[in-house]
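We treat protein structure as text, and this decision shapes the records that our systems exchange. Because each token names a local backbone shape, the row as a whole describes the fold. For reference, a complete record is included directly beneath this paragraph.
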Amino acid sequence: MNRTLARLALAAARRRLITTATTTATTTRSSSSSKSRPWSSRGGCFTVGVRYVSTTAASGGVYAFPTEEAYNEAAVRQINTLYSRLDGLVQETDGMEKKLNVDYDAGVLSMDVTGVGGYVINKHAATRRIWWSSPLSGPKQFDYDPRSKDWVDSRDPSVFLLPLLKHEINLLLGIDIDFSNSS
């Protein structure tokens, strides 16, 4: 088990992430195994701390916000703008309130698309990222890219937050929404 965790930690260290993350593994001791384990035989937990460094290709590296406040300001501004544009879309388009429900509460933007599922977009201060959950593209984490002034997917630097959201709204609702100059 220790070798498996070491391999996982090494593989994870090669990936593009920017802050310290903790991997938690829960295991139970097999009744047929007589070897002693570094964890409790009752299913205790242990953690392995791993430090990650981002190498997002789009920007030559992830923009390092000088302060937590700078990150919070940029992330909140982006999410507020998304909410404003999406809520405006619902208000301005006839019958849209039956297809799309948009809510923004406590820094979390929720979007429910009737018959498809829900989106969640929120800031994650510990990693200084914007997190995304979509019924179409799944979970993603976005780092800020100062060159494009957009948030770029931490695992696929060809994917940006605003064009992805625009594309998915167009696919689901058949509406072309403009998010330009929204960061």
About this structure: The chain is about 30% helix and 30% strand.
